[in-house]
Amino acid sequence: MADLDEVITDSGIKPDALTALKATERKITVVPMTSDN
Description:
This protein is α+β, with helices and mostly antiparallel strands. It is built from 1 helix and 2 strands, in the order E-H-E. The protein has a two-stranded parallel sheet. The termini are far apart. Keywords: Plasmid.
């Protein structure tokens, strides 16, 4: 994680995982899931 500037994930991420990612102080982008996924 130390080499990453940004993490991109979909809105299906579990809340506890998102909280853990936010704690890394990296930019976190959550992309909405569509019905096509």
